Amino acid sequence: MRSLRWVTVVLLAALALLQWPLWLGERGWPAVHRLRQQLHAQLLANEQASQQNAALSAQARDLRNGTQAVQDRARSEMGMIAPDEIFVQVLPASSPLPPVAPASSAPAR
Fold first, then answer.
1. Disulfide engineering: 74 pairs with which of 49, 65, 80, 97, CB 3.0-4.6 Å?
2. Contact 52, 46 (CB under 8 A)
3. Of 65, 63, 82, 64, whose CA–CA distance to 73 is shortest?
4. pTM
5. Residue 21: CB partners within 8 Å, gap ≥ 6?
6. Do 73 and 63 touch, CB atoms closer than 8 A?
7. What is the per-residue pLDDT across 62-91, written as a single tens digit (0 to 9) for each?
8. Domain boundaries of the chain, sorted by first residue
């Protein structure tokens, strides 16, 4: 009976030693879970970068192939106005009106 107790203790200790790396080791379940989360985050970042690259590639293709894209970009980023266009600025109703210079009645000589 006494030897059976020792065998049980030895088998339980061997089982604990075999389970130790699985649960607490460097390549155990918690580490695998952490790596899966990192992989998922990296895949999302790669997808976003891929979408940005596709958009930039399309924009570069447009800029190489036509002048319309160049004009659109110049208008939005630099405020370009073509020679045959008229610039009109609409102010919100709550903004004060700019001062108007008084018109002189006599022509300047």
1. 80
2. no
3. 63
4. 0.46
5. 27, 28
6. yes
7. 778 877 777 777 878 888 888 888 877 787
8. 2-77
